[in-house]
Structures are given as C-alpha cells and as structure tokens.
Design brief:
By secondary structure, the chain is mostly helical. It has 2 domains: about 10-50, no CATH class; about 50-100, no CATH class. It is built from 5 helices and 2 strands. The chain has a two-stranded parallel ribbon with strand order 1-2. Helix 3 runs antiparallel to helix 4 (about 65-80), helix 3 (about 50-60) packs parallel to helix 5 and helix 4 packs antiparallel against helix 5 (about 85-100).
Length: about 100
C-alpha cells in the first residue's frame, strides 16, 4: 500500500470519505484528481477515480458541455502547465470526438 506520509490533510479526509461508502453503492464518490501520488493511493485502495480529462469526457457524454467547449478546456488545462503530454491530449480529443 502506498505511504500517506506526504499526503495533505485534505487528501486524507477525501480518502476517508470515499472509503466510508459501501462498495455496493454505485453512486458513491469519485475522487477527481490529477495528482499522481493521490491517484496511486486511490488505485491501491480501489477508490473510484477520475482526472480532469475524464470529467470533460463525461460532461460531453452527459450533454453538459459541447465537444468544442470540452476541447477548449482541455487546451486551457494544457496551457497552464498541467503536464499533459501530446499523446494524452490526442487521446482526450479522440475520446471527446467519440462521445459527441
């Protein structure tokens, strides 16, 4: 199991909240983070997880935003230095294209 020594109090509280839900409850919380250590911890603890890109794709799927707006937001995330590599951006573009 990953060490939580460097985790913030907020991360620990978020994980505790997510873990408190019954596994049978398919409407439980999803941790949304692009923070690599927190993502690794969520995966190790089987906590449902998404990143910024997943949120954008889901918003297009639900009809909350248009494909064009999702791509604009994706590029904005990339511009602020979120560490997205080119292949990840292309994959996200394909995912939003497929849902539209």
């Amino acid at each position: 199991m990953p060490a939580l020594a460097a985790a913030s109090e907020g991360d620990v509280a978020l994980l505790a909240y997510a873990l408190a839900f019954d596994d049978r409850d398919d409407r439980g919380p999803v941790v949304v983070t692009d923070d690599k250590p927190l993502r690794v911890t969520c995966e190790a603890l089987s906590v449902p997880l998404s990143g910024s890109i997943g949120v954008l794709v889901r918003a297009v799927e639900r009809g909350d935003i248009e494909q064009k707006e999702a791509k604009q937001k994706l590029y904005a995330i990339d511009e602020v230095g979120a560490g997205l590599n080119a292949s990840l951006v292309r994959k996200a573009e394909r995912m939003t294209d497929a849902t539209a």
